[in-house]
Amino acid sequence: MQHCYDVIRDHVNKGIGVEFLLKKLGIKREESIAFGDGMNDREMLKSAGEGFAMGNAHPDLFQYAKHKTTAVTNSGIFNGLKSLGLLK
After folding, report:
1. Domains of the chain
2. What percentage of the chain's residues is helix, strand, coil (to nearest 5)?
3. CA-to-CA distance for 57 and 60, rounded, in angstroms?
């Protein structure tokens, strides 16, 4: 069985990074989209206007995402963007 661990500081996470970039680039939160599949993505999904948990995501991650899409290996990002009407 494989194990994976993330070592993350209390005030350093992907959500902080997203918020920093949105502010720096002058993009409204509501205009941002994030996709994630690991528990280290939870703050990022909450920080983005539209947060997608991939179908292959850690089961505990789904509660932090606004949307669920298919697995990353099953065109998850494409299907997520399609569900928002951004792709046909």
Report:
1. 14-83 (3.40.50.1000)
2. 45, 10, 40
3. 8
Measuring CA to CA, which residue among 56, 51, 63 is closest to residue 15?
51
pLDDT tens-digit map of 7-63: 667 778 999 999 999 999 999 999 999 999 999 999 999 999 999 999 999 999 999
Tokens of 73: 């290996």
Residue 33: strand pairing partners:
50
Q: Half-sphere exposure of 6 toward its Cβ, with a 13 Å CA cutoff?
A: 11
- Write down the pTM of the prediction: 0.86
Alpha-carbon gap, residue 86 to 49, rounded angstroms: 14
